[in-house]
Specification:
With 97 residues, the chain is mostly beta strands. The protein has a single domain, classed as Glycosyl hydrolase domain, family 39 (Immunoglobulin-like, Sandwich), CATH 2.60.40. The chain has no helices and seven strands. Strands 1-2-7-4-5 form a five-stranded antiparallel β-sheet, with no helix packed on it. It has a two-stranded antiparallel sheet with strand order 3-6. A hairpin with a 5-residue loop joins strand 1 and strand 2. The chain is globular.
């Protein structure tokens, strides 16, 4: 499942894997509302996750240069849920202080 935030500043991809025994996902993303660099934070809930915590931390972050499409290879594990949060990576002079 994938979606775009109402303000067009973020996009999310949710992957649920309950049966497949694979090592990685290959994902292509096209049509983001920004054309600049993109940051992708990856959150995973699997058998190693402490479900008693309410503050899920990102297990990985990747940065992609300016492009009209992204190719990502994401680690995968069986019986897991993965959330990819894509955000517009602002340049240093554009960052909100």
């Amino acid at each position: 499942m994938a979606g775009l935030a109402p303000d067009n500043a973020r996009a999310g991809i949710l992957i649920s894997n309950h049966r497949l025994n694979c090592n990685e996902y290959e994902i292509r993303v096209r049509g983001l509302p920004w054309q600049d660099a993109t940051t992708c934070a990856r959150y995973v809930v699997d058998r190693h996750t402490d479900i008693n915590r309410y503050d899920l931390a990102a297990v990985g972050t990747n940065h992609f240069p300016k492009a009209d499409s992204l190719w990502m290879t994401i680690p995968a594990s069986v019986r897991s849920v993965c959330l990819l949060e894509l955000t517009h990576a602002l340049s240093g002079s554009d960052r909100v202080k």
